[in-house]
């Protein structure tokens, strides 16, 4: 068994780049907003990210048996980008899957993007080629992710002919798949607004966004620290003090010296480190329950993700000004309409009402993430408006990019009548994107067959709280069961 965890090195403390925005739509909220000229960003609107530059440094790797691989550079949205293209022997334009990488940090170097080997094997075994872009920028630049990936999809065969003098056929089908931020990009790339507004229009016939982030990611990363501050007794402090009050972090992203907020809400292990599995008092217990509700509700494996390194990663994002570290020009975070609950009854308790009345509130600037006339938004939206088969996969314990995104995706698809085109799978694992080889291979194979006319594959129900809370939820597509977690069928 090989399990592919999301590497800790890719989740540094500097992930404050990801924080914060809850109201990213052009008119506020996460719908598509309006499409009138009044909603389009004025040309003078600029952001810190516009002045950043990056260096493209190739990192080549071997082709899998029975395939040929190519590498090169091309001009992307923000500067140079790198491409990789792997083609199975005998390929004659028989479909191209674009791989979209996850978050690349805040460094000045972009590098070649390499998908998990099990994903590559599944794609190649079905006769597809795949290509990936480094993107021309780091930070949470999902806009560059879409535009650079789309440009590559349309031009990669020309780049290979230019760089290798190898003539390859034009693909007869385009698909897209990725993980984490790349999952956000893959889902957004087939969403109607982005397909219409991108500079490079690709007729994608399917998407497989895995463990995907989306606009709600920044709502979550803004809500949890604010709830902590209030429950710990620091709700009257300016939010900018959160980083100093939560503690000191190692460059790897681990909390090494708990601050007063953490000490107020968690018991400590020997040596003084927080015991995330042991909330302190009624406030700590309520924090854990609020976190569970915000990340997808009662479900198996949640507590294992809560008691993990992902807790440090989420806390390490605290204190941003709401512009996602310069990706937006204005504050995009707002919690005016957010209801924080530690119970699950239909109506909030009197104590919950009182808590929600006193927690600090702020409004997002409605112009933080407007429509643009030069491509997709700075943060492309996932609105659930798609017309092609989409298959997703998400771990239940992911405390960083939470399972709640899957529920929102389903709700939006139902709103737009697209639910018959969406298959979702829950995996009983505690971390972020830590899928086993067999899970990758089954998901990608089933998706590719479905896109090409096979019956719609099976998936999991994600909206029924009773189903999701069942002790065996997620057992259908988890392969193998993870050691140390509750076994399927044990109850």
Automatic annotation (TrEMBL):
Q: Which key words tag this protein in UniProt? A: Signal
**Location of the region described as Disordered in the Swiss-Prot/TrEMBL record:** 28-52
Hey, what's the signal peptide range on this chain?
A: 1-17
Name-wise, this protein is Alpha/beta hydrolase
């Amino acid at each position: 068994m090989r399990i592919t965890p999301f590497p800790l090195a890719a989740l540094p403390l500097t992930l404050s780049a990801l924080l914060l925005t809850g109201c990213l739509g052009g008119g506020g909220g996460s719908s598509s907003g309006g499409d009138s000229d009044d909603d389009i960003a004025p040309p003078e609107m600029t952001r810190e990210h516009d002045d950043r530059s990056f260096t493209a440094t190739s990192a080549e790797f071997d082709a899998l048996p029975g395939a040929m691989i190519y590498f090169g550079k091309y001009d992307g949205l923000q500067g140079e980008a790198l491409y990789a293209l792997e083609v199975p022997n005998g390929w004659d334009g028989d479909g191209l899957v674009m791989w979209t990488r996850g978050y690349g940090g805040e460094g000045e170097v972009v590098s070649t993007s390499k998908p998990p080997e099990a994903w590559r094997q599944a794609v190649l075994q079905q006769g597809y080629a795949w290509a990936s872009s480094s993107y021309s920028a780091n930070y949470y630049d999902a806009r560059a992710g879409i535009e650079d990936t789309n440009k590559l999809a349309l031009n990669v065969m020309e780049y290979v002919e230019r760089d290798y003098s190898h003539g390859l056929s034009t693909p007869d089908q385009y698909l897209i798949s990725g993980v984490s931020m790349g999952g956000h990009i893959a889902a957004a790339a087939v969403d109607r607004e982005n397909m219409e507004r991108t500079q490079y229009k690709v007729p994608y016939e399917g998407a497989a966004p895995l463990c995907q982030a989306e606009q709600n990611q920044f709502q979550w990363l803004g809500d949890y620290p604010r709830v902590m501050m209030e429950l710990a007794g620091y709700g009257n402090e300016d939010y900018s003090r959160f980083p100093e009050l939560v503690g000191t972090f190692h460059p790897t992203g681990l909390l090494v010296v708990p601050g007063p907020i953490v000490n107020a809400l968690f018991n400590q292990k020997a040596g003084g480190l927080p015991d995330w599995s042991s909330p302190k008092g009624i406030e700590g217990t309520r924090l854990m329950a609020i976190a569970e509700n915000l990340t997808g509700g009662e479900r198996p494996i949640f507590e294992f993700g809560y008691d993990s390194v992902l807790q440090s990663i989420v806390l390490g994002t605290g204190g941003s000004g709401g512009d996602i570290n310069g990706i937006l020009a204005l504050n995009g975070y707002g919690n005016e309409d957010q209801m924080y609950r530690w119970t699950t009854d239909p109506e909030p308790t009197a104590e919950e009402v009182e808590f929600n009345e006193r927690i600090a509130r702020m409004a997002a600037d409605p112009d933080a993430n407007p429509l643009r006339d030069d491509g997709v938004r700075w943060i492309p939206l996932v609105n659930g408006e798609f017309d092609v088969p989409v298959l997703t996969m998400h771990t239940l314990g992911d405390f960083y990019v939470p399972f709640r995104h899957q529920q929102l995706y389903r709700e939006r698809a139902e709103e737009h009548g697209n639910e018959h085109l969406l298959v979702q799978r829950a995996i009983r694992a505690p971390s972020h994107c830590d899928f086993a080889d067999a899970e990758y291979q089954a998901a990608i194979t089933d998706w590719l067959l479905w896109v090409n006319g096979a019956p719609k594959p099976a998936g999991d129900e994600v909206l029924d709280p009773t189903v999701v809370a069942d002790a065996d939820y997620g057992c259908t597509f988890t392969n193998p069961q993870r050691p140390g977690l509750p076994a399927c069928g044990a109850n």
